[in-house]
Amino acid sequence: MELTFYGHACFSVKAGGKDILFDPFISGNEKATAIDIDSIPADFMLITHGHADHMADAIPIAKRTGAKVVSNYEIVVHLGGQGVENGHPMNHGGKWKFDFGTAKYVNAVHSSSFADGSYAGQPGGFILETGDGNFYYSGDTALTYDMKLFGAQHDLDFAVLPIGDNFTMGIDDAVMAAEFVNVKKVVGVHYDTFGYIVIDHEAAKAAFAAKGIELLLPGIGETITV
Ligand code: NI
Ligand code: MN
User: What pTM does this model have?
Assistant: First the structure.
């Protein structure tokens, strides 16, 4: 599966011929100034939770592309009130068949509020099952034993996990998360963007490699095949 990294926790995959964009936060990311948000393709936009570093650019991209926005009920309703009418609300444990395949919204242990502090529903992650491959994107989360269930229920090819620590799992917990969901490939996100989450890339790769897991850290703007 083709995956393009746009910095922080924003990335897109191609599945079923569709561009699926996750957690758009680009214009506020000093490290992602080379990315032109007006040229990012999106047929779908999946948002894990309400924090600005996951959805600050959701409205302009959704309005330009007409992408279907998939998130929790509260976020979809909130965006609907701001003119993003092509939304699909979900909640934990639910799945839905879209054009690209199936998406399931799963538990995450984190918080979720909009930039003004109002309630943005409970945070989540997504499990995608598509003809081009299956993967788990945890969103911002702590390590949780729930991940064992995701690995037991789904045959996953890779996972996209936060590794920056402080606000989410750090490297050691992300290694265990990868073991829980039973993948041998992880794309690391949510690191280096700001001071609290700067990591040592080589040490991170070594920690995963010690458990037989490959950690991929694509550059911002880079497309990789996972
Ligand atoms: Ni967050
Ligand atoms: Mn975050």
Answer: 0.98
